[in-house]
Amino acid sequence: MTPADGPSSAPAPSAGPLAGLKVIELGQLIAGPFAAKTLADFGADVIKIEPPADPKRPQAGGGDPLRRWRLLKDGTSVWWQVQSRNKRSLALDLKDPQAQALVRQLVQDADVLVENFRPGAMEGWGLGPDALLALNPRLVMLRISGYGQSGPYRDKPGFGVVAEAMGGLRHLTAEPGRVPVRVGVSIGDTLAALHGVIGILLALQERHVSGQGQVIDVALYEAVFNCMESLLPEYSAFGAVRGPGGSALPGIAPSNAYLCDDGGYALIAGNGDSIFRRLMAAIGRADLGADPALADNVGRVARVQEIDAAIGAWTAQHSVAEVLAALDEAQVPAGRIYTVADIAADPHYRARSMVDEVRMDDGSLLALPGIVPKLSRTPGAHRRNAPALGQDTHAVLRGMGLSNAQIQALKDQGIVAGTG
Fold it and tell me: 222 and 76 in one domain?
């Protein structure tokens, strides 16, 4: 893939299905910024508001803390390049009344505002929905929080890991009888962000009819719970409390990870009725494939241990590559467990532009995840790299009508920062 150009101080030329959409991003870290990143990938002009460095703690730096999370390159997290690509950075101290007034001015012609502070923070700054929708009745406001904007837990601090547990996911992610483990990424935040993007697009569509904006209230735990499939109705109807299933998918058979003779695992999903028959033929157990009692999922679940043992006995005699080759031939869904090194080298990832090499400010190339979903006529694009803190402060404020002298005065007071 052709490397994307480095950042510029002005927005990239309009492109993508959301071109012309003005988005103000408040908040930090993962959920809110991920939602705004998704909008930016598809052409929205996202102005990310970040706090300037605290003069009392200059060593801590300023901006979104994600800038300094995990592995750093030249002092900045490479994760930052994923989360903030295509955005502009305005360094603004939201605790200052003058900064709050600037946000209200920005909002007057904005389409969307994204925030993920604890409930009540925005109201405390005079930036709650009542104030902002009075200024701009067409504004769509996404609010992401741990527990939502109402209810008895509203004011509790909530991070994704807690939401994953409350939403029912953590209880399922373990081997039976062992401590539940977390998913290795911030899945609760990401699910909430994607639900937020869905809400924004729904609200924008409705705005075409009513001309009115509205508030979207996304709770982290609810976004996780929304993905829990049949968990609640099974409890309601049968009193069943689904427990950890390890690498299997309880109630669906066969679907598991099977050890191979080279020490790797093959993931095999033979749970379709015709697929099951092909799988049994491939492993030399046509007798099981022809057994009428195993013709559908209900029968297979009742004998899942027998089926898993038969599959495991076959995989134990072959390498992962041999297993996958045989199952590809039999048209049985199967795969191996990828590391990131496998992902980076995989030709299918490359063919679908999911490993996107972009050029950094220092001229080096950095591989980033490609953009999804794929749109045929108006695809998303990496138009500019993630901004330095306050890189676009001057350009944004000048675009609001402030003079150079006014901007300098705000900088002298520590209310804004940046050189852009």
Answer: yes
Distances (CA, A) of 351 to 321, 324, 354, 372, 414: 21, 21, 8, 14, 48
CA-CA distances (angstroms) from residue 387 to 7, 8, 76, 391, 412? 7, 9, 11, 6, 22
DSSP annotation of 68: G
Task: Give CA separation, 71 vs 66, 75, 154, 355, 360, in Å.
Answer: 11, 9, 33, 19, 16
Rounded CA-CA distance 89/48 in Å is 5
Cα(357)–Cα(211) distance, integer angstroms: 41
What are residue 24's phi and psi, to 5 degrees?
-105, 120
From 49, 45, 88, 85, select the one nearest 383 (Cα to Cα): 85
Q: What end-to-end distance do the CA atoms of the chain give, in Å?
A: 29
Q: Strand (E) positions, 66-196?
A: 72-73, 76-77, 87-92, 112-115, 140-145
From its phi and psi, is residue 203 left (phi > 0), alpha (psi between -120 and 50) or beta?
alpha
Pairwise CA distance, residues 69 & 76, whole Å: 8
Residue 9 counted as domain residue: no
| 284 shares a domain with 398 | no
The pTM (predicted TM-score) of the whole model is: 0.91
Residue 155 tokens read as 């004011």
Owner of token pair 């241990």: 305
| 169 and 313 within one domain | no
Q: What is the pLDDT of residues 285-303, one digit of tens each?
A: 999 999 999 999 999 999 9
- What is the count of structural domains for the chain? 2
Residue 164 belongs to a domain = yes
Which has the closest alpha carbon to 141: 198, 192, 238, 216?
A: 216
> 297-309 burial, b for 16+ CB within 10 Å, e for fewer?
beebbebbeebbe
336, 354, 386 — which closes off a domain?
336
Task: Give the closest residue to 327 by CA, choosing from 249, 246, 258, 252.
Answer: 258
> In the annotation, is 261 catalytic?
no
Work out the mean pLDDT of the chain and round it to a whole number: 93
Partnered with residue 48 across adjacent β-strands are 25, 89
Domain that holds residue 165: 22-227+343-417
Q: Which of 41, 45, 189, 392 is catalytic?
A: 189
Separation CA 181–CA 175 (nearest Å)? 9
Strand extents, DSSP E, 83-169:
87-92, 112-115, 140-145
pLDDT tens, position by position, 200-235: 999 999 999 999 999 999 999 999 999 999 999 999
